[in-house]
Amino acid sequence: MNFVVLTIFPEMFDPFWEHGIVGRAIDHHKIFASTLNIRDFAEDKHQVTDDRPYGGGSGMVMKPEPLAGAIRAAKRKCPDAKTILLSPQGRVFDQAAANELAAFEGLILVCGRYEGVDERISHELIDDEISIGDYVLTGGELAAMVVIDAVTRQIPGTLGGEDAAEKDSFSNGLLEHAHYTRPQVFEGRSVPEVLLSGHHGAIENWRLESAVLRTLLKRPDLLESKLLSERELDTLKKWYRRIEEIIKNYHRDHRAHREKK
Ligand code: 4GX
C-alpha cells in the first residue's frame, strides 16, 4: 500500500509516520508513506493556496491550480492509486470502507482546509469522497490519519498476532468482549473466574456471550443490522428468557400487595 497525502501542513504527519503500528508498517515496507506540500505547486511568488469565494461571504476556498498540480504529481508517482478527498460531504467511513480501501495499490489523500476546495477539483481529479464522521474539523489532515490508521491495520503482517485483525471489533459485526489483565483483584474487583480456569471452550463461550451482551447494551444498532450466528442468537435468547423470568417473578411476588390495595 502506498499512501500519498496532499496537505499544506505536511509536518503534522511526521510524528504519525514514526509511531506505533503505522511506524512499524513503514519500517517493514508493508506500507509506503509520503506527503506532498500543496503549497509547492502554487505558481505565484507568495505560494498562495487559498482565495476569496466567488459570490462573497466569509471564509476562504482552496485555489484549484495548486491542488490540481499536487494531485497530478501524486498520480504520476502512484498511477494505480485511488484519489480520496476528506470532507464532511463524503460517505461516512467505517470498517467495511477500511477493508475495501486496503485492497488498493495506493491511496492519494487530499486534505482540504478553510471552507473547502474549488468544486471543479472534484469532477476530474477525485475518485471518492470520505467523511470520518458528522462533526466539523479544521482540516482534512486528522481525517486522513484516521483513514490511514484503520486501513494499515487491515494489511496482512502489520499487526503483532497472525490474525489479530480478524479478532477486532466490527470484523464479526460485534463489539469486542471484555478484557482483563493482572492483577487478579484490582480495587476489590476480581477477574471473572472462567478466564482463570484454563478451560478454552468455556473461555470461548464466555467471550462470545460478553461480545453479544456488550453490543446489545452499548450499540444495539449494530445487532439490528447484523446476520447473527446460531450461537449469538442462542445467547440473546438465553438472556431474553432470563429477563422474562425476572419480570414474571416480579409480577407474581407483587400481586398480593397489589390485590390488597
Ligand atoms: N471528515 N473537515 C475538510 C475542508 C473541506 C471541506 C469540504 C474539502 C471539502 C472532515 C470530516 C471535516 C472540515 C475536513 C472541512 N475540504 N473531513 N475541511 N468530518 O470535517 O473528513
Describe the protein in words.
The chain is of the alpha/beta class. The protein has helices at 14-18, 20-27, 64-77, 95-101, 119-125, 141-152, 200-218, 220-224, 230-260, and strands spanning 2-7, 32-37, 50-51, 61-62, 82-92, 106-111, 128-131, 185-186, 189-190. Strands 2-1-6-5-7 form a 5-stranded parallel sheet, sandwiched between helices. Strands 3-4 form a two-stranded antiparallel sheet. A two-stranded antiparallel ribbon has the order 8-9. Strand 5, helix 4 (95-101) and strand 6 (106-111) form a beta-alpha-beta unit. The chain is elongated, with a radius of gyration of 25 Å. It starts with a strand and ends with a helix. The site of ligand 4GX has 17 residues, from strand 5. Ligand 4GX binds at residues 85-88, 112-113, 116-117, 131-133, 135-137, 139-140, 143.
List keywords for this structure.
single chain, 261 residues, 5-stranded parallel beta sheet, binds ligand 4GX
SSE topology:
Layout: E1 2-7, H1 14-18, H2 20-27, E2 32-37, E3 50-51, E4 61-62, H3 64-77, E5 82-92, H4 95-101, E6 106-111, H5 119-125, E7 128-131, H6 141-152, E8 185-186, E9 189-190, H7 200-218, H8 220-224, H9 230-260
Helix pairs in contact: 3-5, 7-9
Bound molecules: ligand 4GX.
Ligand 4GX binds next to strand 5.
